[in-house]
Amino acid sequence: MLGLMRRKLGSGDVPALIGGQVLQRISPATSVLPRFFSSAAKEMMVREALNSALDEEMSADPKVFLMGEEVGEYQGAYKISKGLLEKYGPDRVLDTPITEAGFAGIGVGAAYHGLKPVVEFMTFNFSMQAIDHIINSAAKSNYMSAGQLSVPIVFRGPNGAAAGVGAQHSQCYAAWYAHVPGLKVLSPYSSEDARGLLKAAIRDPDPVVFLENELLYGESFPVSAEVLDSSFCVPIGKAKIEREGKDVTITAFSKMVGFALKAAEILSKEGISAEVINLRSIRPLDRATINASVRKTNRLVTVEEGFPQHGVGAEICMSVVEESFEYLDAPVERIAGADVPMPYAPNLERMAVPQVEDIVRAAKRACYRSVPLAAAA
Amino acid sequence: MRRSRTVTHAPDGEFGPDLAEVFGPRQSDGGPELVQLLTPEGERVRHPEFDREFSAEELRGFYRDMVLTRRIDTESTALQRHGELGIWAQLLGQEAAQIGSGRALRPQDFAFPTYREHGVAWCRGLDPLKLLGLFRGVDQGSWDAQEHHFGNYTIVIGAQTLHATGYAMGVQRDGAVGTGDPDRDAAVIAYFGDGASSQGDVNEAFIFAASYNAPVVFFCQNNQWAISEPIERQTRIPLYQRALGFGFPGVRVDGNDVMATYAVTQAALQRAREGSGPTFVEAYTYRMGAHTTTDDPTRYRLSDDVENWKLKDPIARLEAYLRRNGLVEDGFTDHVAAEAAELGERLRAGCKQLADPEPLSVFDHVYADLPPELAEQRDGYAAYLASFEGAQA
């Protein structure tokens, strides 16, 4: 019923005149949760964080618009764009046909015109249909035009493994996109990350690949008043030290940050103090923070959910070898997904993605406190 | 060896006539629906929908544009043969398609080219030396697309049709469509070839343009060849008929007839500016030269094909018309020939003077601002270069 009413009033129409007075368009709260304005630290779901970031940036800059499948009438395949069609109308929230290559290229054309598109891929697996436009049209335009054609576009959507979605819907593209000069690649973990990084991405003049995670959308995190402010932004290229430690550095991004923090908790009970770095930015990579940490702890475990070969951890390891080799007291440990297409069977899928125990074991190996590996369970 | 150009036809059946049969597999005359205002012999013919009057000034202008464009093309081809350019994509034979459509553009319209639209570049006021800089590989920057309303050359086949459609949707949302103000209403034209029409990108652009009623003209120069692939390899049906399937009008125009190309493109652009959405214009022409200077078309096509099309030359037919109607009594053609010679000289001299880019510029413009990581790499490289004996500071 309420949904029906919304449809009538919204969609960018002129507000109705009733009794000589303009009827205020009822704009229901765009967030899933009601907002409490108390002084205590508030909790916010990642989904709401992304939604509020989009809303605020669209409100602040009329050039920003959203485009993708299901983003409008359906309120977003994962409800990230809930309420936005109604608030901003169909000219700024475009439901597209099933044409990833199409709307990625269209987005670049719109950016050439001076607009700021936010292009949503239902998952980044489908970005492979559009990858020519992400890389050849978006990433390289500024370079190939001597800085005359900038493409302030954001490509965003869920990346990596979800739960039981099979091989073609579970791949992590962090390494793929971070490989490309001209792109910026971000991956939030918490709601603070989601808000701050998405706002920074939308404001950035360069093309940004924004890798979210479906399983994080429903997770809640405490957010401060500063985070809730509409001007809040997180700098691109700076990692965040989520937990300080002195014995081993653990790098991670997206969902794995949560796993790394859990691992750190377990390790602390065994007398190992782990420093957990939330990368936030895959390209540019915050080599300074990573290396400073390794110079402090002398040990490194890189964690990612994607395939191991040519992954993010490989680059981090090389960076540390290049800049902090003498500081390493142990070989760098790499935790990644299994080197197989994601299995569909739930028991096999669990084996194919890193678990907290894997991170704990790796940290112990780095500290020469490892236990013999039992058969994986 | 010439490849077979026959197509297998399905017999007429419960699904109706075989459309390829209706329009014929070989359409060297362009088929029954070809829009033409000037025959290959230079005779003026009428057309019920697209006819218009042309002033002597307009026609002389077209002639001059085509002659100078051809000169740019032949001069650049020669420069490539002399090692002054890395490569050149020749437009020989397609001058009318490009000048006719290019001159129909208003200043506020925007053109998205492929890599062969040197005639359209000419119409948009681009100095041809800018094109040479690109093909010589010394100019990372091409030209300022916004200044000339002419996009950068795109070699990813068909990609520009999506860029054009996205740009057109931006024009729409800026309210520059259907206002009735001739200085404000704008259209976008997307150039592409017969080969590109097979690409997914191009078809998705059609879908989007139709769905969103975007103010874009899809201008296909069907020059019969995609490198060595003849048109029959790309399509079973005349290309302009595809538009119907996507839900917007398509028209085939004689791409060697500058008058018809101008009239049809003007009408299509006006449709877009008014808010009536996309149009597909197929300019039926022939690639008289090679795909690029690295191609050798004698390997895959017979010279009598080319000879046939020489009889349909775009410049010759206009010149015949102009002479027959006394429009060039004043030595105009000699004047244009002299201008072409001068242009050729300027291009030759200018090309050789184009300087190689500075080594450190390789790090420029990867991002809007130089990131610290890249600055470090650049500084490191600069130090490396400076470490050579006799290196300049």
Tags for this model:
heterodimer, A: 377 residues, alpha/beta, 7-stranded mixed sheet, 14 helices, globular, B: 393 residues, Rossmann fold, two-stranded antiparallel sheet, 15 helices, 43% helix, disordered N terminus
SSE arrangement:
The complex is a heterodimer of chains A (377) and B (393).
Chain A: H1 2-9, E1 17-18, E2 21-22, E3 42-45, H2 46-60, E4 64-68, H3 84-88, E5 93-95, H4 100-113, E6 116-120, H5 131-139, H6 141-144, E7 154-158, H7 174-178, E8 184-186, H8 191-203, E9 208-212, E10 220-223, H9 225-228, E11 240-243, E12 248-252, H10 255-269, E13 274-278, E14 281-283, H11 287-297, E15 300-303, H12 312-324, E16 333-335, H13 346-352, H14 356-366
Parallel strand pairs in A: 4-5, 4-6, 6-7, 7-9, 8-9, 12-13, 12-15, 15-16
Antiparallel strand pairs in A: 1-2, 3-10, 8-14, 11-13
Chain B: H1 19-23, H2 56-81, H3 95-102, E1 110-112, H4 118-123, H5 128-136, H6 145-148, H7 159-173, E2 188-193, H8 200-212, E3 216-222, E4 225-226, E5 229-230, H9 231-234, H10 242-246, E6 250-254, H11 258-274, E7 279-284, H12 303-310, H13 314-324, H14 332-353, H15 372-386
Parallel strand pairs in B: 1-2, 2-3, 3-7, 6-7
Antiparallel strand pairs in B: 4-5
Catalytic activity (chain A): N(6)-[(R)-lipoyl]-L-lysyl-[protein] + pyruvate + H(+) = N(6)-[(R)-S(8)-acetyldihydrolipoyl]-L-lysyl-[protein] + CO2
Main location (chain A): mitochondrion
Keywords (chain A): Metal-binding, Mitochondrion, Oxidoreductase, Potassium, Pyruvate, Thiamine pyrophosphate, Transit peptide
According to CATH, the homologous superfamily of chain B is Thiamin diphosphate (ThDP)-binding fold, Pyr/PP domains
Radius of gyration of chain A: 22 Å
Strand order of the largest sheet of chain A: 5-4-6-7-9-8-14
Largest contact between protein chains?
Answer: A-B, 45 and 42 residues
How many individual helices of chain A?
Answer: 14
Strand coverage percent of chain A: 15-25%
How many β-strand runs of chain A?
16
- Known CATH architecture of chain B: 3-Layer(aba) Sandwich
Largest beta-sheet characterization of chain B: 5 strands, parallel
Count of DSSP H/I helices of chain B: 15
Q: Give the total of beta strands of chain B.
A: 7
